[in-house]
Design a protein that fits this description.
Layout lengths: L6 E3 L8 H4 L8 E5 L6 E5 L6 H16 L3 E4 L5 H11 L4 E5 L12 H9 L3 E4 L9 H13 L3 E4 L8 H10 L3 E4 L10 H8 L3 E2 L3 H5 L1 H6 L7 H10 L6 H8 L3 H13 L3 E3 L5 E3 H5 L2
Parallel strand pairs: 3-4, 3-7, 4-5, 5-6, 7-8, 8-9
Antiparallel strand pairs: 1-2, 2-6, 10-11
Helix pairs in contact: 2-3, 5-6
């Protein structure tokens, strides 16, 4: 059998995931292609109709988590799921797509190349269903519960109130998993689900440092900053500034500054205050 040939795991197999075996109704069969990573696992989920900033955030979040040695799991759907898998690939990390279909009916079809890239970088496909199974509403809901069982943490990046991604969160909550949600403005309907999850007890996530703690903080200084990132850091070395001021002081465009600020914030090097001003994280530590 080739390394990425599909195979079946049953509860009696030593490689059958322990967390799934502990489910009230453990699946009799799991269909696998590739290698299920042993690294600590996080599920990153959200809406198919994500905004561009949410997609950028998701990609960088997944990248940083993989750089810290974690594996990223998601459902392979358009939007947030796709961005999560792409972020893992950017870090050459391990990512698993948990499917609501059989392997002969990859969904969405537009992600076929992405799914094969996951295999090529040591990731995996996982499904409850035999290869010929097509997707249904119920198969995707069951997929969401399986996804929640396989990870330590679930991150909801962006989702409206009535989002399928919230069923993954609901399953994770029943299983006692740690749930995180990215905060949003109350007038953003596309992210209302995140606010509802925060109100229900989900932890607020604005940076991987909150998820990884000291491990990520040790990682960040090892990365060489880009020219744009260094310019932003130099500008903020003496005092906090908002985005407009940073643009003026650095001579960079709004898009260049926004991208640099987002990356630095995800790395835990910048913090944003309630009035929209950014400052270096170490400045807060000195207060």
């Amino acid at each position: 059998m080739a390394p990425d040939d599909p195979f079946v795991l049953t509860p009696l197999h030593p490689d059958y995931p322990i967390a799934v075996r502990a489910m009230a109704k453990a699946p009799a069969r799991l269909f696998v292609r590739g290698t299920l990573p042993q690294a600590r696992a996080v599920a990153i989920v959200g809406t198919r109709r994500a905004t561009a900033p949410a997609l950028r955030f998701t990609t960088l979040l997944a990248q940083r988590l993989c750089e810290a040695g974690w594996s990223v799991w998601s459902g392979g759907a358009a939007g947030i799921d796709t961005a999560a898998h792409e972020g893992a690939l950017r870090a050459n990390g391990k990512s698993v797509v948990v499917m609501g279909t059989g392997f002969d009916h990859l969904y969405p079809v537009c992600n076929t190349a992405l799914f094969h890239q996951l295999l090529e970088t040591g990731g995996a496909w996982l499904s409850l269903y035999p290869p010929s199974q097509v997707g249904t509403r119920w198969s995707f809901l069951a997929r969401n519960e399986l996804l929640a069982s396989l990870v330590d943490h679930v991150v909801l990046v962006q989702a409206p109130a009535r989002s399928g991604a919230r069923s993954t969160v609901a399953a994770a909550r029943r299983m006692g998993k740690t749930i995180w949600a990215v905060p949003a403005s109350p007038w953003e309907n596309v992210a209302e689900g995140c606010l509802l999850e925060i109100a229900a007890g989900a932890r607020v996530l604005s940076s991987p440092t909150q998820l990884l703690g000291r491990a990520m903080k040790r990682l960040s200084p090892c990365r060489v900053l880009s020219n744009h990132e260094q310019a932003v850091v130099d500008t903020l070395s003496s005092s906090a500034n908002n985005l407009d001021a940073i643009c003026e002081l650095t001579g960079l465009s709004a898009g260049q500054v926004s991208a640099a600020v987002l990356t630095l914030t995800l790395d835990g090097l910048l913090l944003e205050s309630a009035d929209g001003f950014y400052h270096l994280a170490r400045q807060q530590q000195q207060r």
